[in-house]
Write a structure and sequence with these properties.
It contains 6 helices and no strands. By secondary structure, the protein is mostly helical. Helix 1 packs across helix 3.
């Protein structure tokens, strides 16, 4: 039990820290070269809080990627390369679906900071944030080209590296002679 807990903590830490460093680094590299520094997608007349505060939005996705990737690590290591690619797409889709409501709540929080906090601000942030995150958050990620494409490639290689790096090795003391 202790070995599984230790492995899970190592896996989470590896995926969280590495994905965050890579995602933030790629964001700022693209920010330097993209026209008008538009790395993320946006709707017309949308308040661009994800441009003003990119790191928290990136960290939300990295947080949930770490959890999802950790859950798929043992399966990933036993698969063929084609199945690993399919598993990566599943990891990406689950990560986007799980993180979108939280990105929506953060967006509403930033929107309230820009104007005013209504009396029922917590309910508004949760209810509207989850709704808006699920309805448009995934689309903003989908139109964030080339950031999303680079992110999918990094997700594959990072998940692969983590799965093989953190897999359980056979215990030599259990080896029969």
């Amino acid at each position: 039990m202790k070995a599984n807990y230790s492995k899970t903590v190592k896996s989470l830490f590896f995926f969280w820290s590495t994905s965050a460093l890579l995602a933030i680094g790629v964001y700022y590299i693209l920010w330097l070269i993209m026209p008008s520094h538009r790395v993320f997608g946006a709707f017309f007349h949308m308040n661009l809080y994800h441009y003003r505060y990119p790191v928290p939005y990136i960290l939300i996705v990295c947080f949930f990627y770490g959890i999802v990737a950790t859950l798929f690590t043992d399966r990933f290591v036993r698969q063929t390369q084609l199945r690993q690619i399919i598993t990566t797409l599943i990891i990406v889709i689950l990560t986007v679906l799980i993180s979108s409501p939280f990105g929506g709540m953060l967006w509403h929080y930033h929107d309230m900071q820009a104007g005013f906090f209504p009396g029922d601000w917590k309910r508004k942030m949760v209810k509207n944030g989850i709704r808006d995150g699920l309805s448009i958050g995934w689309f903003i990620i989908a139109i964030s080209i080339p950031y999303n494409i680079i992110g999918i490639l990094i997700c594959y290689y990072l998940t692969r590296k983590g799965a093989f790096l953190l897999r359980e090795k056979p215990n030599k003391s259990n080896k029969t002679v």
